[in-house]
Amino acid sequence: TGMFTFDPGFTSTASCESGLTFIDGGEGILLHRGYPIDQLAEQSSFMEVAYLLLNGELPSPGEFDDFQYTITRHTMVHEQLKTLYNGFRRDAHPMAIMCGVVGALSAFYHDSTDITDPVQRKIASHRLIAKMPTIAAMAYKYSIGQPFLYPENSISYTGNFLRMTFGVPAEPYEVNPVVEKAMDRIFILHADHEQNASTSTVRLAGSSGANPFACIAAGIACLWGPAHGGANEAALNMLHEIGTPDKIPEYIARAKDKEDPFRLMGFGHRVYKNFDPRAKVMKETAAEVLETLGVDDPIFDVARELEQIALNDEYFIEKKLYPNVDFYSGVILSAIGFPTTMFTALFALARTVGWVAQWNEMISDPEQRIGRPRQLYTGPTMRDYVPLGSR
Ligand code: CMC
Questions:
Q1: Which residues surround ligand 1 with Cβ inside 6 Å?
Q2: Membrane-spanning residues where (predicted)?
Q3: Pocket-testing residue among 324, 346, 355, ligand 1, by greatest number of atoms within 8 A of Cβ
Q4: Domain 231-336 has CATH 3.30.300.160
Q5: Which residues neighbour 250 within 8 Å (Cβ) at sequence distance 6 or greater?
Q6: Least confident range of 48-52, 166-170, 230-234
Q7: For the whole prediction, is pTM greater than 0.90?
Q8: What is the CATH number of domain 21-226+342-363?
């Protein structure tokens, strides 16, 4: 490979040093700052995980109060931003709106685009985390033609998001604690995942000195793809397409057929080759939510049966393909009432915490340089230009 290491898809290249997240794909281990994901998902909260990822340690009660106070002080978006929404078609995909609106934040918060100032970097980080629920909820409200709701700072981050999404000005909105807990857990499970495609995109964009709002917009664009964050939407659409358990073998056969581009969405992972620890928590949460809400969704049965059949199929065993975080999240989100088009926007909301933490880590790294991969050139060798008339 000449001067360079050839590593398409970066399967064996470490692009940075990072102290945030540890993954052991063989053992199915995921740690944030050393803490196992299942303990965080079961005992912590999304805001606490956000603090942990940003600051390196769990907060003391006082630090946690201050952090939550700071975040709630940034939940509103500039009033002028509303007009940006009005420029979109009502049937615009929420991810298209998110790319545009988050990118546009740099035009509204000029002060925190100065990445050389650590204080401004912190403010930009808090702004992004705080405004994401407002921005995502507004995308939803716009799509269904209901008025935008302002944030309500006396309730939790996640409760407030549910209220801005499902509430209406005409009546008070009661946050269902089971739904709030499940939503918060989904956010925790999506908060960070080391150098995945969208996080690497954020780092690469940030390595040139681009402002944090532009970098997160780049991350959102990358996350949208069905091989990445778009898989949660694609997985639920697939389960609906399968519809009934008797159709499962047909789809399993298609997934195994190399002539057919179809893949089982929500299955397989670049790093996890044993199981995805997030999927385990997600499956349990799906069962809890469906039971509490009294939702009898046949799609959950299709999902469980599909998982069983695939886990016992030679192809999936040999290729080490297991359900990933996106396989069961859609079942929960639709039971809560989200349309499939919102699924990836919710992933973006949660992953903003990881993106922002990784971006801060990169900017503060003294070794940080612009990310500039090389290539193996496969084009023509040098040749002489032929004028148009002589071709
Ligand atoms: N269904 C059927 N076959 C699959 C699947 C699948 N879901 N995933 C991988 N394979 C096969 C693939 O065809 C290939 O076979 P062969 O060796 O014969 O060519 C082999 O398994 C290895 O796949 P790969 O594409 O080389 O693996 P990768 O590490 O590049 O891709 C992946 C990982 C997650 C993109 C892939 O498994 C996939 O496309 N899964 C479906 C989409 C999905 O659920 N994505 C969410 C990932 S987790 C959350 C997130 O990152 O956002």
A1: 9, 196, 227-229, 231, 255, 263-270, 319, 321, 324-326
A2: 327-350
A3: 324
A4: no
A5: none
A6: 230-234
A7: yes
A8: 1.10.580.10
